[in-house]
UniProtKB/TrEMBL annotation:
Residues 30-143 form the Probable transposase IS891/IS1136/IS1341 domain. This is Probable transposase IS891/IS1136/IS1341 domain-containing protein. InterPro entries: Transposase. The lineage of its organism: unclassified sequences, metagenomes, ecological metagenomes. Pfam families: OrfB_IS605. Coiled coil: none annotated.
């Protein structure tokens, strides 16, 4: 059984379809060729500072926090990882626990990507030029002095 999420244009040429699986759920992604107009934006010029504790700080003073829903799900993730490690390898209960762990990982990934999409969409709609810094944030996380 397939559920349609999003609009699939009928009169457009389909280029390809990709079938994928994440955390026990199957997805079909269809690529179509379509011409879109890029809207003209007369917003200001800003710089974005990516951070470790805060997601991003914009030069006009706006601060984007990390989503709060992550903290609760990260606690659930730690508990489920402990639960999986206690299961016997190859057992059905371990397989079920791994699937639940994958679902938590997917939920965390979806929350992060949704929040980043909302922030970038806001910036793209309201600003005409956006400058980003080129820092290795994951490397900063590993260095305890910087985080």
């Amino acid at each position: 059984r397939l559920k349609e999420k999003g609009y699939i244009p009928i009169d457009k040429h389909i280029l390809s379809a990709t079938v994928s699986e994440r955390a026990g759920r199957w997805y079909v992604s269809i690529l179509v060729e379509e011409d879109i107009e890029i809207p003209v934006n007369n917003g200001g010029v800003v710089g974005v500072d990516l951070g470790v504790k805060k997601l991003a700080t914009v030069s006009d003073g706006k601060v984007f926090e990390n989503p709060k829903a992550l903290r609760m799900n990260e606690r659930r993730l730690v508990r489920k990882q402990r639960s999986v490690s206690r299961k016997k390898k190859g057992s059905n209960n371990r397989r079920k626990a791994i699937l639940e762990l994958q679902k938590i990982h997917k939920r965390i990934s979806d929350i992060r990507s949704d929040h980043i999409h909302k922030v970038t969409s806001y910036l793209a709609k309201t600003k005409s030029v956006i400058g980003l810094e080129d820092l290795n944030v994951s490397g900063m996380l590993k260095n305890r002095r910087l985080s």
